[in-house]
Amino acid sequence: DDVQALRRIPVELALAAKNTLYEFVFDFFRTNPTIHDTKALYHADHGNLFTVALSAAEFSAHRLAMLKQTRAGSGKRLATGPASILVPFELQELAYNLFVRNQNLDKTFVQTINPEVIPVDYWTDATDWCTVASTMVLPVLEIGFLDGREDPELFVQDQPNAGSMFSNDKLTYKIRHIYGGNVLVDGEKGTTKAVVA
């Protein structure tokens, strides 16, 4: 009924805000933006761009490349490997199975790493995938919220003596969720990507 439809509006607005933030964050990995050094986030000069499909051997290559990255200014190795693997739905099962023992009781080296498999629901390229280091050790991105408000603000104009409610008997909703983000210095060293043709 109409009352239920009205009750759904705030829920739908909150979901829209959540999904918009979700896509804002994961688009850094999907779109490969230009970063502080005027190169793309994933670039051959950064040593974090690959072209081979997901497999145990290729995951190991990404891991090794990430471990060999060096800190800006010191040249010392960061020695931080992937904590997560970002995949489209098409690669979710394969990614999960790479880190499961199956019938063999002895884990392979790759299975001992056991990164968190994160399927990104709106990625449409069925073959591209990324690895990301732990955000506690080597953060790739920084996301900031206006006045520290991480949750969206919902405003309702429902006073009968003002605004659209007064002039047109119309209830008005407004949502505000202001944030921004960027790749950190050395952030490119905490992620790798395979762009598979």
Fold and architecture overview:
The structure is a single chain. This protein is an alpha/beta fold and 197 residues long. It has one domain. Helix content is 32%, strand content 21%. The chain has a 5-stranded mixed beta sheet with strand order 1-9-4-2-3. A two-stranded antiparallel ribbon has the order 5-8. It has a two-stranded antiparallel sheet with strand order 6-7. The longest helix has 30 residues, at 2-31. The relative contact order is 0.22. The mean pLDDT is 92.
Relevant terms:
two-stranded antiparallel sheet, five-stranded mixed sheet, 197 residues, 32% helix
Number of separate helices: 5
Bin the strand percentage: 15-25%
Based on the structure, what is the oligomeric state of the protein chains? single chain
Radius of gyration: 22 Å
Q: What's the number of extended β-strand segments?
A: 9
Q: N-to-C terminal Cα separation, in Å?
A: 49 Å
Strand adjacency order, main sheet? 1-9-4-2-3
> What integer is the average pLDDT?
92
The secondary-structure class comes to: alpha/beta
Helix content percent band: 25-40%
Biggest sheet layout: 5 strands, mixed
Counted up, domains total: 1
Question: What gross morphology would you assign?
Answer: elongated
- Helices and strands, in order, run as HEHEHHEEEEHEEE
Task: Give unreliable regions as ranges.
Answer: none
